[in-house]
């Protein structure tokens, strides 16, 4: 789960990282008041989870509180890559002498929390990795003893932190590490970490991505989820215990198992269609979960056919077949459905599906081809 | 022969009295797996699976009493890291963790502690493994297998079943099928399993089922180019997955433009491994590569 900048900064501040926190606002009036409170000049920053908000006009400087209100009026409601801005952060403007990048990631290759640092901050680290990989330090930390002082020093020297600020840098590095561990993060980055004209180090922007698997033990962090940034169908899916990602195609997919769900999407594409979603209904799915999945898929007006692909292991084919027939009777919108059920109790599923006049298929390739044909026919 | 487990394996099940543990232990027993013990703290002294398997409070007790030499873990995610550490601490050499949703930072510690001790960990978030007609450990349906010359390794669950079923239907049997798990941090990599298959005299050919995220498939390709002379076929799931989104599995994510299906496919093909467009094409690729 990605956290908004102001949430990420809240967490870092708790761990002693110096930053220009600012205040959030959802109206121009609030923004003006916040600017007056903080003291202009300020920066008005769109709070969205997508990258590239600066280029999209989502970050603007304001010299006075009135200007801050005007800038907020421009930014609130702005569409940045499909996300409409609801909240802005009003933060003190900093006079920047230098920008650094400082991040921690959970690196699956080295199986360690790994420091990523670069003296070329203010740009995306992936960009630096492409154009100047030598400017990046990657330092895997010991998985059992964590960040050590010699590592803090090494990163500081690599970045060329001015001699008088090394202690301050150590505080920031340690704070970032302790925030990462305490919140079970996948990624925590300060970009840029700035050296100001008056010789201070401060975190100008921050991003934290949390490990979804650890969220159950962090209810306080779960509460930071920004529902404004999620598809309503994805929120409904999460509540139903279904793994779902909305895409742009016309063929809805309902599958058990993540790998098979991805494969089903791939085969729809191979057959000349476009998948409307990724959907893993999970193990041991019963009628209620099938019904919830139908509702989520059909919530998307682009869907013109549904491909249901179930490999029965724990999941019993006949139970899913009955679930499909029952749920279909409740639907307000009907589209052609292609059902492929194999594995446990697949034979028992066949008469149930046949009686309901559903299109069936034995192989996945055949099912994908039939779904693509059905979607074309329904257009 | 087969790899990792066989008819001699003496299996312990941690969480044997839970809903999942009991259901799958019954299926394992039916398959012929030698389940010698179960562990559920507080239920020591009872017997599980219709009285056929003794239950112990601790793994140490279970090992001392039964000589268990492998364990299959079905406990909930919050307790799974501790269960893996307990098994390793009791000197069980092979730990298979089925549990999904283990926090990654917990897995980091578990991974390194088990590695230092020399414990072989499969998973977590995996379907387990089957050495055909010898032992089934985990949740892979037993009836999809047929004994034969092909080893299979995968990061997935039901997609594995799909490929195994396609092979069996085509008359191509398996030695062992292994699901290594869909999490970012898992105990055993593709390379580890490929190395075992490569050294197993009975395994004549290898199938590898990968998916988007990480660089395990690329590493596997490099290893195969260097070490493996047995015929191979592969499939990579997630060609249509959008970047930056986790596709069900915690580890299935294209991040910063890396970990795409295209890059994995290219790496495998460069290593001389043919990659199928559909799971149903795997049997033909194996035939083409000389599998009888």
Question: What attributes characterize this protein structure?
Answer:
heterodimer; A: 379 residues; alpha+beta; Rossmann fold; 4-stranded antiparallel β-sheet; B: 292 residues; alpha/beta; 7-stranded mixed β-sheet
Describe the 3D structure.
The complex is a heterodimer of chains A (379) and B (292). Chain A has helices at 5-14, 28-38, 65-75, 125-131, 149-159, 166-182, 219-222, 232-240, 258-270, 287-298, 317-330, 346-355, 364-377, and strands at 23-25, 42-46, 59-62, 79-80, 83-84, 88-92, 96-107, 112-118, 136-140, 185-196, 201-203, 206-210, 243-246, 251-255, 277-280, 305-312, 337-343, 359-360. Chain A is of the alpha+beta class and 379 residues long. Chain A folds into three domains: 22-92, ATP-grasp fold, A domain (Dna Ligase, domain 1, 2-Layer Sandwich), CATH 3.30.1490; 96-222, ATP-grasp fold, B domain (D-amino Acid Aminotransferase, Chain A, domain 1, 2-Layer Sandwich); 232-377, Succinyl-CoA synthetase domains (Rossmann fold, 3-Layer(aba) Sandwich). In chain A, strands 7, 8, 9, 10, 11 and 12 form a six-stranded antiparallel beta sheet that branches. A four-stranded antiparallel beta sheet of chain A has the order 1-6-2-3, covered by helices on one side. A four-stranded parallel beta sheet of chain A has the order 14-16-17-18, sandwiched between helices. In chain A, a hairpin with a 4-residue loop joins β10 (185-196) and β11. Chain A starts with a helix and ends with a helix. Chain B is an alpha/beta fold and 292 residues long. Chain B has two domains: 11-122, Rossmann fold (3-Layer(aba) Sandwich), CATH 3.40.50; 140-288, Succinyl-CoA synthetase domains (Rossmann fold). Chain B has nine helices and 14 strands. Chain B has a seven-stranded mixed beta sheet, with helices on both faces. Chain B has a seven-stranded mixed beta sheet with strand order 9-8-11-10-12-13-14, with helices on both faces. In chain B, β8 (128-131) and β9 (135-138) form a beta hairpin. Chain B is globular and about 55 Å long. Chains A and B meet through α4 and α9 of A and α4 and α5 of B.
């Amino acid at each position: 789960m990605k956290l908004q900048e102001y949430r990420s900064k809240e967490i870092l501040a708790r761990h002693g990282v110096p930053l220009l926190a600012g205040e959030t606002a959802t109206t121009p009036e609030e923004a003006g008041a916040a600017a007056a409170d903080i003291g202009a000049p300020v920066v008005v920053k769109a709070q969205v989870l997508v990258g590239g908000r600066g280029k999209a006009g989502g970050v603007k400087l304001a010299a006075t509180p009135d200007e801050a209100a005007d800038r907020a009026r421009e930014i609130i409601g702005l569409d940045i890559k499909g996300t409409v801005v609801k909240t802005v952060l009003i933060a003190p403007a900093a006079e920047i002498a230098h920008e650094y990048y400082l991040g921690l990631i959970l690196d699956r290759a080295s199986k360690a929390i790994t420091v990523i640092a670069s003296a070329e901050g203010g740009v995306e680290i992936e960009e630096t990795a492409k154009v100047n990989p030598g400017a990046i330090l990657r330092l895997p930390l010991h998985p059992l003893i964590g960040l050590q002082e010699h590592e803090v020093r090494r990163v500081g020297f690599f970045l060329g932190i001015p001699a008088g600020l090394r202690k301050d840098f150590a505080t920031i590095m340690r704070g970032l590490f302790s925030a990462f561990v305490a919140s079970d993060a996948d990624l925590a980055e300060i970009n840029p970490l700035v050296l100001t004209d008056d010789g201070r180090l401060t975190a100008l922007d921050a991003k934290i991505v949390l490990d979804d698997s650890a969220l159950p033990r962090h209810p306080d962090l779960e509460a930071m989820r920004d529902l404004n940034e999620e598809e309503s169908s994805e929120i409904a899916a999460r509540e139903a215990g279904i793994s779902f990602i909305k895409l742009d195609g016309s063929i809805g997919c309902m599958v058990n198992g993540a790998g098979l769900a991805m494969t089903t999407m791939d085969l729809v594409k191979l057959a000349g269609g476009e998948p409307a979603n990724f959907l893993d209904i999970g193990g041991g799915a019963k009628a209620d979960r099938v019904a919830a999945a139908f509702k989520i898929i059909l919530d998307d007006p682009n869907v013109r056919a549904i491909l249901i692909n179930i490999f029965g292991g724990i999941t019993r084919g006949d139970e899913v077949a009955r679930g499909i027939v029952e749920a279909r009777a409740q639907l307000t919108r009907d589209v052609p459905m292609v059902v492929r059920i194999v594995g446990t109790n697949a034979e028992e599923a066949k008469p149930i599906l046949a009686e309901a006049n559903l299109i069936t298929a034995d192989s996945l390739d055949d099912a994908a081809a039939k779904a693509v044909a059905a979607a074309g026919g329904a257009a | 022969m087969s790899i990792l487990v066989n008819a001699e394996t003496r299996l312990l099940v941690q969480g044997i009295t839970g809903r999942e543990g009991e259901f799958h232990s019954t299926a394992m027993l039916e398959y012929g797996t030698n389940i010698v013990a179960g562990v559920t703290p507080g239920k020591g002294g009872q017997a599980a699976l219709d009285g056929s398997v003794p239950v112990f409070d601790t793994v140490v007790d279970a090992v001392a009493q039964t000589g268990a030499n492998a364990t299959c873990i079905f406990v909930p995610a919050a307790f799974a890291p501790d269960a893996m550490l307990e098994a390793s601490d009791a000197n069980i050499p092979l730990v298979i963790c089925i549990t999904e949703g283990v926090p990654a930072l917990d897995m980091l510690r578990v991974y390194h502690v088990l590695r230092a001790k020399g414990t072989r960990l499969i998973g977590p978030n995996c379907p387990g493994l089957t050495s055909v007609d010898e032992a089934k450990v985990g949740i892979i349906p037993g009836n999809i297998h047929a004994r034969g010359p092909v080893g299979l390794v995968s990061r997935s669950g039901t997609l594995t079943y799909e490929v195994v079923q396609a092979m069996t239907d085509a008359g191509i049997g398996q030695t062992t099928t292994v699901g290594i798990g869909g999490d970012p941090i898992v105990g055993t990599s593709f390379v580890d399993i490929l190395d075992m298959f490569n050294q197993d005299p009975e395994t004549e050919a290898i199938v590898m089922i990968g998916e988007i995220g990480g660089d395990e498939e690329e590493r596997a390709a490099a290893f195969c180019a260097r070490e493996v002379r047995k015929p191979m076929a592969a499939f990579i799931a997630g060609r249509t997955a959008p970047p930056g989104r986790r596709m069900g599995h915690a580890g299935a994510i294209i991040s910063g433009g890396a970990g795409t299906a295209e890059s994995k496919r290219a790496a495998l093909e460069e290593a001389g491994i043919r990659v199928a467009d559909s799971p149903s094409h795997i049997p033909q690729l194996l035939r083409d590569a000389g599998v009888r």
